[in-house]
TrEMBL record:
Family the entry assigns: Belongs to the bacterial solute-binding protein 7 family.
Keyword Transport: yes
Entries under NCBIfam families matching the protein: TRAP_S1 (NF037995)
Entry keyword set: Signal, Transport
Protein name per its UniProtKB record: C4-dicarboxylate ABC transporter substrate-binding protein
Amino acid sequence: MKRMTWLAAAIALSISSLLGAGQALAQAKHQWKFVSIIPAGQEVFVDRFKELAAEITKRTNGQVEVTFYAAGELPYKAPEYMRVTAKGLVEMSEIVGSMAFGDAPPLLLGDLPYLALNDAERKILRDIMWPKIYAALRKNGVEPIGWGAYPPRNIVMREAVKGLGDIKGKKIRTAGGLEAEYVKTWGAAPSFVVWAEVYPATQRGIVDGVLTAAVAIETAKLYEVAPYFLKIDGPVAHFYISVDQSSWKKLSPELQKTVKEVGDWWTDRWQKLVVEEADNGAIKRMQDKGQLKAVVQVPPETHVETRKNLIPVYRSYVKDKVGPEGSAALEQALTALKLQ
């Protein structure tokens, strides 16, 4: 009798353990921290990143729970996000090509200014460059799930201008790199000032103008010290939403598929809501409020001429920074774009 009682108890315990394990498995969550380069307060960008985190959580039915952190909320700096993510210190991050190319040089290939001048050319460029960029990200321990671009660069000036000819000899604040190179082709003098000092530097005349996105001009109130807007429809800066490979491999194939579908959906949404609507909306709002004294549109033929002048710069820059693989990709792009 005692033997039967012991056996029944053992069976009951085994069943209970199996049920508990099954429930634990069903309730298991992948908890991801997601960090961006954008600080709190810049809601036009932050809201979209929060939306991405919420959408992944929603569409995976909470199996992948993503929590968003703005810049400064975690103890990591933007240029090290790729390394931090690869180590699993955060599971997901916004990796900006111009900030991370020191570790992954092919990331530069997405940001060659004025190489593509319309949507059709941009698609040709992505088809050639993105496989190289994604391979570089994977080589550095992260899996890309989506991408975006910050809005086109434009210029605001302290004094009135009628076109690009009027910025010759003027000091224009840029973020450095290739931004400085194409400003030079217009005869201007590129100058670097940290973003926090841009407003007072412009106010005091340390720089004559600032190259940045319209949304940034509006939020930083640069129109107060530089109210003349030169619409150059400039280059964009790409970033790549990436997940550390260890966390990625823990997902089932079904969850991986769902997360990438969200990434594709969000990439299109970012383009529409940030690059198109928010940036153009910023220009319109500043005009409607009289914050801009003038808006001058640079004609398309100027972009064509700028691109022609930049081709030797592309070749030298890519050869130096990326190497033979980058040079081969650039030549392939130039051929596909019928520029040689």
